[in-house]
Amino acid sequence: MIIVRSYNPAQHGHSVRSPYELFADTKNEVPETGTATKALISNFPGGSIPPTTLLITGDWNIAQLGTDDKWSWIDA
């Protein structure tokens, strides 16, 4: 299951920071795109998932959504 871990809609000047941070139990359950990810989140509070959104898994895999709507996983 993928959920919204935090939501902070406040804008800070000219920040391009996403107001969302997402959580998934595992990396394997995360689709390749933000659009497909949004479809799995019940009661998503906004339009689309914007670029710069972070997604963290239960075992600390971290991804950031790019402007191409694809998750980029950070290699630890």
Radius of gyration, in Å, reads: 12 Å
Give the uncertain stretches in residue-range form. none
The major β-sheet equals: 5 strands, mixed
Count of β-strands: 5
What gap, in angstroms, lies between the N and C termini? Answer: 23 Å
Number of helices: 1
Query: In the residues, how many domains can be counted?
Result: 1
Strand order of the largest sheet: 1-2-3-4-5
- Average pLDDT, to the nearest integer? 90
List keywords for this structure.
8% helix, mainly beta, 76 residues
What does this structure look like?
The model has no long low-confidence stretch (mean pLDDT 90). The protein has one domain. The protein has one helix at residues 34-39; strands at residues 2-7, 20-24, 54-57, 62-65, 71-74. It starts with a strand and ends with a strand. Helix content is 8%, strand content 30%. The chain has one helix and five strands. The chain has a five-stranded mixed beta sheet with strand order 1-2-3-4-5, with no helix packed on it. It is mainly beta and 76 residues long.
